[in-house]
Structures are given as C-alpha cells and as structure tokens.
Amino acid sequence: MNLSLTWADARNYVIALVIFLAIDMVWLTVIAKNLYAQHLGYLMAPKAKLLAALIFYLLFVLGLQFFVLNPALAAGSWKMALFAGMFFGLVTYATYDLTNLATVKDWPVLITALDLIWGSFVSGMTAFLSFLVIRRFF
Q: Does residue 81 have a pLDDT over 80?
C-alpha cells in the first residue's frame, strides 16, 4: 500500500470535500433541520460547534477517499465508487446512530433509520460524483 501523497490526491480530496459539503448542506439546512429539532431538540446545543463539524468533514472525506474513491479510481469503476461509497456511509453513520440508539435515553429510531439512509446516499453520491468529475476532467 502506497501512502505517499501527490497533488492529484490533494486535488481529488478537495473535489470530494466540496461535493460532500454541497450535498450535506442541502440536507442539513433544508431537509433535516426541522426534523432534528423536532426529534432531538432536547439534545441539541443552541449553537453548533463548528470546529467539531469541520473536523468531522475533513476526517470523513479523508476516509471516503482512502477506502472508496482511490480504489474505485484505480479500478476504473464508477460502480465501485457508488456502491462501496454507499456501504462506507452505512457503516460510518451506523457507528454513530446505533451507538446512540443503544446508549442515549429516548434516542428516536426514526432518526437512526433516516441517518442510515442519508449516510448511504451522501457517501455513495459523493464517491460517484467525485469519480465522474475526476475521470472527466483529470
């Protein structure tokens, strides 16, 4: 396994990060905002901790690139990007949501189910769209 970084790796990371942020911001600001407030309002901080969110985004996309996007690019397979991305999203979002379901009093099953679907979708689409952009333009 080659762990050396190249300009192409950095470029691909930025592409995936921008795509992930764009898709996730639509989810957070338009779709899930009221849903989370309704079901998790008792747990929500009055103001988001932006540093923690930034660290999540940076690490998540790095994992997506390392475990999904790079192998899909090496294989030349958009299907690998899409489906491995969906599986990566399912596993990573399940880690958070199923742990909360197991340990947080009154954690809503609906939120867990929606987050697992969302994590699969956003990760799969990010890997797929990143793959297409990178293959098409670089």
A: yes
Helix axes 109-137, 50-64, angle to 10 degrees: 60
Q: What is each CA distance from 76 to 15, 111, 119, in whole angstroms?
A: 17, 35, 24
Measured between alpha carbons, how far is 87 from 69 in angstroms, rounded to an integer?
12
**Model-level pTM greater than 0.90?**
yes
State the Cα–Cα distance between residues 111 and 35, nearest whole angstrom. Answer: 8
Question: 3-state class of 3 per DSSP?
Answer: coil
DSSP character string of 34-90: HHHHHHHTTT--SS--HHHHHHHHHHHHHHHIIIIIHHHHHHT-HHHHHHHHHHHHH
E strand or H helix at 127: helix 109-137
